[in-house]
Design goal:
Neuraminidase, 2 domains, 6-stranded mixed sheet, 5-stranded antiparallel sheet
Length: 544
């Protein structure tokens, strides 16, 4: 076959592969990249590469399928597909190269060191190109996070999708395409040697949420990347217990055999500790008296379906999506369900679970708690809720993607309101953020992940501003309590690095200083003096 005929046949096969895949998978947003049918843009020189020992050029990867993942590290949908990408890398080690293109949303996400921390936190194994000025994003006509583009071994885009994908979906395309390219001698199946970055072990690894038990002198720490719950003494940090084997997984049992996957929020009811087992999409219950872990909600699979109507169902038969924070009130457990941008509620008796607030739209909109049907206008919308607290009347929500603090009535009646944030803006509510103290019409936060109510005040882990802020719940007035805004590790001046969890007891705040792998203490009775909690006796899991 001459070159012209071979090119024509190849183009036809690629078009059929992409069309069949899109139709068979029912993905409306998936489409062949017709606008770039003659090839893809070369990657600009001079951009930084992370998690690889050398920069890459698309031209040198001819013979491989390339899956480009346009992502930003704050985005829950981007987080959801990372395990899918890892599965694809395992399934097609000789045929596929995954390249992450980090195209930042928030100002903080443009920082190379912060992206490096995110790569480590999410345990990404593939190379990542730093696209902080969105030049690659624009050249590939990307419009949403995440977007994936599949490039064939001769450098042509054959499939793209805006939104979440599964390994099975991409695998269906690859399974149709690989035999063709192999027959034509166009597939290079030699291993590609890339060396990802490695970091030193630490006693805690990206701790997410913390929960103080003042009467019991205990601090519960979600040691997220060690896949365990650590219990220490509040007063001196001495190790009490470590719950979970430390290996990622989904197993009930005693403290040494139970497994979690990136646990986050916790709630204590008597001697039962409830845990948002985030990447397992489960709610777990730890019996602290008997030393046993059990699963009380979720199926272990992410809920990707949009229901026709919101309704309650049996907890063990209901699929969840990234439960991130928990709060107990009366006989209910409230759940910040980051995946569907909602607040859910479960009975402590274990009879039912379901949406409590939020219509499922990713937005910052005030209004009635819950619509009957998803996405109904005129009802409250949240944007990746990630922290919960309460004064007994209002449930306060750290609504991270909208850089806002919201309040939902616990009575089940009335409207969701915004304490501090962007709900009053006519547009760009999810893209308006900053680091500004003052009254609520002027104040700005940047991707807050944690909130606690203590002594009549709200305290917020203003994560991407590297600060802890104080908010008057009645007026919405914001003031910085600790942190100078620079990422770092120090007590005087106080510096944090993306603090994500916050709790309170005895006039002190305990902060999960996530990227520093530390627990910090803020003494409210000593003008916000900051110290670092020692953790004697705590080591990384033995396999780490």
């Amino acid at each position: 076959m001459d070159h012209g005929k071979r090119k024509g046949a190849l183009t036809l096969v690629l078009a059929v592969v992409a069309l069949v895949a899109a139709l068979s998978l029912g993905m409306v947003a998936a489409r062949p990249a017709a606008a770039q049918s003659d090839g893809v843009a070369s990657l600009p020189e001079g951009l930084a590469w992370l998690n690889t020992h050398r920069p890459l050029r698309l031209e040198e990867l001819r013979g491989k399928f390339i899956l480009m993942d346009f992502w930003t590290y704050c985005c829950i949908n981007c987080m959801h597909i990372l395990p899918e990408l890892k599965q694809l890398e395992q399934d097609y080690p000789k045929q596929l190269v995954v390249i992450g293109v980090h195209s930042a949303k928030f100002q903080t996400e443009k920082d190379r060191d912060n992206i490096r921390e995110a790569i480590d936190r999410y345990e990404i194994e593939h190379p990542v190109l730093v696209d902080s000025d969105l030049s690659v994003w624009r050249s590939y006509n990307v419009r949403a996070w995440p977007t994936v583009i599949l490039i064939d071994p001769v450098g042509k885009p054959i499939w793209r999708h805006g939104g979440e994908i599964t390994a099975k979906q991409v695998g269906a395309v690859l399974d149709r395409a690989i035999p063709f390219y192999r027959r034509k001698g166009l597939l290079d199946e030699r291993p590609l040697e890339l060396v990802p970055e490695r970091t030193a072990a630490t006693p805690l690894r990206f701790p997410g949420k913390v929960l103080a038990d003042g009467p019991g002198n205990r601090l519960f720490i979600a040691d997220s990347n060690h896949n365990r719950i650590v219990v220490v003494r509040l007063d001196d940090g001495t190790l009490v217990d470590a719950i979970g084997s430390g290996r990622s997984g989904r197993a009930d049992g005693d403290y040494r055999t139970a497994r979690f996957n990136k646990p986050q929020g916790m709630a204590l009811v008597d001697e039962a500790l409830y845990v948002a087992d985030t990447e397992n999409h489960l709610i777990r219950k730890i019996d602290l008296r008997r030393g046993e872990v059990s699963t009380i909600a979720g199926t272990g699979e992410q809920n990707r379906k949009i229901p026709k109507r919101f309704r309650n169902s049996a907890p063990r038969k209901t699929a969840l999506s990234s439960p991130w924070a928990l709060w107990r009130h009366d006989q209910h457990l409230y759940i910040a369900m980051a995946g569907p941008h909602q607040i859910w509620r479960m009975t402590l008796s274990g009879k039912s679970i379901g949406p409590y607030a939020g219509n499922g739209r990713e937005d910052i909109v005030d209004g009635p708690l819950l619509s009957k049907e998803p996405f109904a206008l005129g009802h409250a919308s949240f944007a990746q809720p990630s922290g919960l607290a309460s004064d007994g009347t209002w449930l306060y929500v750290a609504d991270s993607e909208g850089s806002s603090i919201r309040a939902a009535p616990l009575s089940g009646k009335g409207d969701v309101r915004t304490v501090v944030g962007t709900s009053s803006l006519p547009q760009a509510r999810l893209f308006t953020f900053g680091d500004v103290d003052g009254p609520p019409d002027q104040a700005r936060l940047q991707h807050p992940l944690g909130v606690v109510f203590h002594g009549g005040m709200l305290y917020v882990a203003d994560t991407y501003n590297n600060k802890v802020k104080r908010i008057e719940p009645e007026t919405g007035k914001v003031a910085t309590l600790a942190g100078d805004g620079r990422p770092g590790q120090g007590d005087s001046p106080a510096r944090f690095n993306e603090p994500a969890g916050i709790t309170a007891a005895g006039g002190k705040l305990y902060v999960a200083d996530t990227n520093n792998h530390l627990i910090r203490v803020i003494d409210l009775e000593r003008e916000g003096q900051v110290s670092t909690l020692p953790l004697p006796g705590l080591d990384p899991p033995s396999w780490n």
